[in-house]
Structures are given as C-alpha cells and as structure tokens.
Design brief:
Pfam family, one: ECF_trnsprt
Number of strands: 2
InterPro entries: ECF_trnsprt_substrate-spec (IPR024529)
Radius of gyration: 18 Å
Largest sheet: 2 strands, antiparallel
Helix content: over 70%
GO molecular function: transmembrane transporter activity
Structural class: mainly alpha
Protein name: ECF transporter S component
Keywords: Membrane, Transmembrane, Transmembrane helix
C-alpha cells in the first residue's frame, strides 16, 4: 500500500516529465504535417489521462503546466510563425490548455459504473472533449484577439485574399490538426486509462 499523498506527488512528477518529453523531443508531442502551420500535438491525450485518473483539480494543473510550456516554447524556439503569434499571448496559451484539463477531470469522473462499456464510452467522450476544448478555445480566443487587425495572422496563414470571417478561416486552416488530435485522443484515452485505473486501485488500496 502507498500513501495517497506520496502517490499523488509521484503521479504529478510522472505527468510533468511526460509533457516535458513531449514538448522538447521532436516528433513525440508535436508532429508537423504542413510547413508553416502549427503541429499536430499528442499532448491533449496526456492531459485527458491526467484528468481521468486524478480528477479535475489535477487535470487543470497539468493543463496549466502545458500552457506555460507552450508560451515558453513560443518565446524561445517557435517552430512556425503562427504558433509564435498565437502562443506568445498569455490568454491563448493558458486558457485553452487549462480548460481542457478541467473538462477532462469533470467528464472522466462520470465513469463510476463497473460496466466496461460505460467506462469506454465515458473515457472516449472525455478524450474527444479534452482535445476539442483546447482547439475550439484556441480558435475562439484568437479570433477575438485578432478581430480588429487580423492582417499579420492572415499573412502568416497565407489567407490574405480570403474575405471570410477570421474564425471561419482559422477553423478551415486548423481543422485538419484539430480533427486528427480529437480522434487520436478519443481512441487512446479509454485504452490507456482503464488498465491504469486497475493498477492504481491495487497500489493505493
């Protein structure tokens, strides 16, 4: 049996280490598909796992940590101009990531039934909503922030001739990334969380 406080500290250290690896080791946390556009990220999966395993408070903390790392990378080693423009903004960097962690914890708590099917459904929805929360809030906050003068952002996106609303342009340009991330997170969250839950029960029971 492991003391719950000690166990929580150990789990925190593990998740922080995972996100650090995903952030700074190429092609683990960020996978670039289209040059000049933000990478597809696997980190929403890690945030979803944190929320499902440890609850909304822990998920929120891990999401916030991811947000600070996003801002740090945007200032020190941005991979593209769009990510630099977006994630140097404290609201765009922190709010979507933090909210994603909170959502992961809140929805993940619904998986209290012993039914494997029920847990699979809940954790799948959790993964999907975690990823979509991050993507949609990034798009929404970016649209509001650049609403008055979107010229620099549109130029970086190669959309200077597009007369559509900025939010529609962002959805169309970043939609591929968001869709891939959502499917990836939704599929893998239940596959990873369910066996880990069993291990955690044995360790702290």
């Amino acid at each position: 049996m492991i003391n719950k406080k000690t166990f929580r500290i150990a789990i925190s250290a593990i998740f922080i280490a995972i996100i650090l690896v995903q952030t700074f080791v190429p092609y683990i946390g960020y996978i670039r598909i289209l040059p000049g556009l933000p990478s597809i990220t696997t980190i929403p999966l890690t945030v979803a796992l944190a929320g499902c395993l440890m609850g909304p408070g822990f998920g929120t903390s891990i999401g916030l940590f991811w947000g600070f790392l996003s801002m740090f990378v945007a200032y020190t080693q941005p991979g593209d101009i769009v990510s630099m423009l977006l994630f140097r903004n404290i609201l765009i960097a922190l709010v979507p990531r933090t909210a994603a962690g909170f959502i992961a914890g809140m929805i993940g708590q619904a998986a209290k039934d012993d039914s494997k099917f029920q847990k699979t459904v809940v954790y799948t929805i959790t993964g999907l909503c975690t990823s979509l929360t991050n993507t949609l809030l990034v798009v929404g906050i970016t649209s509001l922030w650049y609403m008055r003068d979107p010229s620099v952002l549109l130029h970086s996106l190669g959309q200077t001739q597009n007369s559509a609303p900025l939010v529609a342009i962002l959805i169309s340009v970043l939609g591929i990334n968001g869709t891939v991330e959502a499917i990836f997170t939704a599929v893998l969250t239940p596959a990873i969380v369910m066996p880990l839950k069993q291990v955690m029960k044995r360790k702290i029971s």
